[in-house]
Inverse folding.
């Protein structure tokens, strides 16, 4: 891992404090994230397998129409069920940078926060946006700018903010305790 | 001097784990778990062992007594890959001095039998069903990959959760189980009704529940959004703790004036058997058993960390005694631990079940996640397992219904989903 060792002075946050992008999809309540790739694919991490399957059940053209920086919007209890990691591996690969939802299922929230994905609980978000609206997510201060106005969102703890800026829990642990740098 | 803020049992356990006099919901703090638990599973423990050594230089553990490993998954195929994975775990435990328990049963149960889940203890695991240890007045929290943070640093940052209180009164009727209670809570209050909260069960109805039923109830907290669930210690759980404790423990209980995010009163005698439709445990999928009756079955399963306890095996044996499982139905009964299996054997329950045509599996997690005896396309199964998403127990084209051990046993006997309270109407049908 020598390449990593040469980047010790880079302190630019992995996740900027403001994320600006389009709403790529709006999911309903109690949404099981495994469904975005289909349960038959939840054990794969191979992007050649995951990308063609991504959102096929919802929008055949999703992968082609999404661009870098877009965000997902969810309803209440987003990530409910027994979430696996490949669905967001696939979403990251097409450029998804954050998820804003009415609320999150705690297990999903913890697992993907570990992986460095900003998951912002924002009551009222599903009523405030429609697909492809441009929104600004000021996750560090708990505000989301939508065409319908500014919504209050949950502010992350200081620890979670550090996790996101480091690009995930593992990278933060490496910075704090690792014998190599993140 | 300000008076001490009244606290819930979960807050008291977390305050101790944070080294503080008190904590309040919403505070983000590092907590020191008494035990940091995992089962070995590819992509989890093997990766963590490698990361700790290669990236963090950890060749040994400062406090190996706090690390607990179970080998309870992937035990039934006997493949070289299976054995290789377990050997990695055995070697790591031998090298570091971490506790390792193999082949004794499902870790969430064995952790209680071996005295890890003592009243007042705080335990974490990457798997969320560790919440079942709340039955003993301990707080078990599933932290997913953040277990690594604890394994490396000895502590873990968490936000103190608020507590939702469930005041239970009355007693469960015959053929109704705590499994029906958790699904009823989800159906009525919602699958996100306890998001980021601890579910605390109390009241005379709570004290009327056996330890096993408390475990099954607490272990399913995640499906109501809970980060954990807990009972205040009572004579039943303290007696259990005294029988397994190998070190001192300090039970704590909620203050009478503790502050709760919500309070729900439930009369246990008003509950009826529930069945969860295939897909997930969300509220719209949960029905009174009568609405689902008649679904033809090919498989039935009693086991998992949320069932398979002596109460569940007794329930199945009482329903199946002197009868035969319906033709075309394969019933797997998997005691949650070897200790429970031995008890069931000594009570003559396993013979009753085998005589009825059930298969008794060695204790493991393998049936619950489709590793053993996977479902085939088009098959219907009724299960006491923890999860019924498509593909969980085998083919993605199979359907998994969930219910209590009573409902599963009665349905296996009938060959279709039935209300176990109506057992007399078909009890002789397949004898």
């Amino acid at each position: 891992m020598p390449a990593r060792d040469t980047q010790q002075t880079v302190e630019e946050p992995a996740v900027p404090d403001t994320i600006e992008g389009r709403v790529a999809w709006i999911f309903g309540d109690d949404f099981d994230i495994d469904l975005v790739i289909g349960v038959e694919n939840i054990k794969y991490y191979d992007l050649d397998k995951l990308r063609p399957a991504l959102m096929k059940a919802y929008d055949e053209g999703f992968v082609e129409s999404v661009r870098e920086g877009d965000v997902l919007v969810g309803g209440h209890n987003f990530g409910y069920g027994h979430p696996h990691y490949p669905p967001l591996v696939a979403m990251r690969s097409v450029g998804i940078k954050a998820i804003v939802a009415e609320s999150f299922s705690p297990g999903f929230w913890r697992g993907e926060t570990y992986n460095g994905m900003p998951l912002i609980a924002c009551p009222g978000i599903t009523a405030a946006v429609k697909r492809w609206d441009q929104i600004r997510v000021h996750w560090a201060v708990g505000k989301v700018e939508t065409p319908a106005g500014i919504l209050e969102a949950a502010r992350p703890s200081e620890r979670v903010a550090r996790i996101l800026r480091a690009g995930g829990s593992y990278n933060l642990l490496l910075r704090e305790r690792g014998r190599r740098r993140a | 001097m300000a008076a001490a803020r009244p606290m819930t049992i979960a807050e008291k356990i977390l305050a101790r784990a944070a080294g503080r006099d008190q904590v309040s919901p919403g505070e983000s703090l590092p907590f020191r778990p008494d035990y940091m638990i995992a089962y070995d599973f590819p992509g989890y423990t093997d990766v963590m062992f490698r990361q700790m050594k290669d990236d963090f230089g950890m060749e040994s553990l400062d406090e190996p007594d706090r690390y607990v490993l179970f080998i309870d998954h992937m035990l039934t195929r006997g493949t070289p890959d299976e054995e290789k994975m377990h050997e990695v775990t055995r070697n790591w435990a031998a090298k570091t001095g971490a506790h390792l328990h193999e082949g004794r049963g499902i870790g969430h149960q064995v952790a209680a039998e071996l005295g890890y889940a003592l009243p007042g203890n705080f335990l974490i695991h990457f798997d969320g069903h560790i919440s079942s240890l709340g039955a003993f007045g301990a707080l078990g929290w599933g932290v997913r990959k953040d277990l690594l943070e604890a394994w490396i640093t000895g502590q873990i940052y968490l936000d103190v959760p608020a507590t939702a209180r469930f005041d239970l009164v009355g007693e469960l009727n015959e053929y109704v189980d705590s499994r029906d209670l958790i699904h009823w809570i989800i159906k009525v209050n919602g699958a996100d009704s306890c998001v980021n909260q601890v579910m605390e069960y109390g009241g005379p109805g709570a004290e009327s529940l056996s330890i096993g039923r408390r475990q099954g109830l607490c272990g399913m907290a995640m499906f109501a959004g809970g980060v954990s669930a807990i009972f205040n210690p009572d004579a039943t759980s303290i007696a259990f703790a005294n029988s397994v404790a190998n070190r001192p423990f300090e039970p704590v209980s909620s203050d009478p004036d503790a502050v709760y995010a919500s309070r729900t009163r439930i009369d246990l005698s008003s509950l009826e058997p529930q069945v969860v439709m295939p897909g997930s445990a969300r509220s719209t999928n949960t029905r009174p058993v009568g609405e689902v009756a008649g679904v033809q079955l090919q498989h039935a399963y009693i086991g998992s960390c949320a069932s398979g306890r002596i109460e569940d095996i007794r329930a199945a044996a009482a329903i199946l005694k002197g009868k035969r499982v319906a033709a075309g139905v394969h019933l797997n009964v998997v005691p949650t631990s070897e200790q429970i299996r031995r008890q069931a054997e000594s009570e003559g329950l396993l013979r009753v079940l085998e005589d009825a045509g059930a298969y008794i599996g060695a204790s493991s997690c393998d049936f619950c996640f489709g590793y053993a005896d996977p479902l085939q396309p088009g098959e219907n199964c009724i299960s006491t397992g923890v999860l019924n998403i498509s593909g969980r127990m085998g083919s993605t084209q199979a359907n998994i219904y969930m219910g209590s051990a009573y409902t599963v046993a009665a349905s296996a006997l009938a060959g279709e989903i039935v209300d176990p309270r109506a057992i007399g109407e078909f009890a002789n049908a397949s004898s």
Q: What stands out?
A: The two ends of chain B are 72 Å apart (CA to CA). Chain B has 15 helices and 18 strands.
